[in-house]
């Protein structure tokens, strides 16, 4: 299952960019042609996040459909699977989307404010 390795890389990047702040949500864009099973990636996310600042974070997956442009006729087509064939019969396609794997956003906690000095507040 390559989803665990991919998800571990996502967790590593998220933790590195969070600067030690708690991560609450992560949005990842996954291309439909990446051969990543969304349910498996969601399951792996919670396992990979254990013991990190992303533990308990929610993963949002945005699936990008596969799209290709035919080099013969110029038509664009939506690709539902890995069979790359244009309506004109040509297999000479240029894939233009569907292979993405991007961390689009993450929600982290703000740094905590320093507690007020109780003695200073009492003297007011």
From TrEMBL:
<comment type="similarity">
    <text>Belongs to the HypA/HybF family.</text>
</comment>
<keyword id="KW-0479">Metal-binding</keyword>
<dbReference type="GO" id="GO:0016151">
    <property type="term" value="F:nickel cation binding"/>
</dbReference>
<feature type="binding site">
    <location>
        <position position="88"/>
    </location>
    <ligand>
        <name>Zn(2+)</name>
    </ligand>
</feature>
<keyword id="KW-0862">Zinc</keyword>
<protein>
    <recommendedName>
        <fullName>Hydrogenase maturation factor HypA</fullName>
    </recommendedName>
</protein>
<dbReference type="InterPro" id="IPR020538">
    <property type="entry name" value="Hydgase_Ni_incorp_HypA/HybF_CS"/>
</dbReference>
<feature type="binding site">
    <location>
        <position position="86"/>
    </location>
    <ligand>
        <name>Zn(2+)</name>
    </ligand>
</feature>
<comment type="function">
    <text>Involved in the maturation of [NiFe] hydrogenases. Required for nickel insertion into the metal center of the hydrogenase.</text>
</comment>
<dbReference type="GO" id="GO:0051604">
    <property type="term" value="P:protein maturation"/>
</dbReference>
<dbReference type="InterPro" id="IPR000688">
    <property type="entry name" value="HypA/HybF"/>
</dbReference>
<feature type="binding site">
    <location>
        <position position="2"/>
    </location>
    <ligand>
        <name>Ni(2+)</name>
    </ligand>
</feature>
<feature type="binding site">
    <location>
        <position position="73"/>
    </location>
    <ligand>
        <name>Zn(2+)</name>
    </ligand>
</feature>
<keyword id="KW-0533">Nickel</keyword>
<dbReference type="Pfam" id="PF01155">
    <property type="entry name" value="HypA"/>
</dbReference>
<feature type="binding site">
    <location>
        <position position="70"/>
    </location>
    <ligand>
        <name>Zn(2+)</name>
    </ligand>
</feature>
<dbReference type="GO" id="GO:0008270">
    <property type="term" value="F:zinc ion binding"/>
</dbReference>
């Amino acid at each position: 299952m390559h989803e665990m390795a991919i998800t571990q890389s996502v967790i590593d990047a998220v933790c590195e960019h969070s600067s030690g702040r708690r991560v609450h949500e992560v949005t990842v864009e996954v291309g439909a042609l990446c051969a990543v099973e969304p349910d498996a990636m969601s399951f792996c996310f919670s396992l990979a996040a254990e013991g990190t600042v992303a533990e308990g974070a929610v993963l949002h997956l945005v699936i990008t459909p596969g799209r290709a442009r035919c080099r013969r006729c110029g038509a664009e087509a939506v690709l539902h699977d890995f069979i790359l064939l244009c309506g004109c019969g040509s297999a000479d396609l240029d894939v233009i989307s569907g292979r993405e794997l991007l961390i689009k956003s993450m929600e982290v906690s703000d740094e905590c404010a320093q507690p007020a000095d109780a003695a200073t507040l009492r003297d007011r």
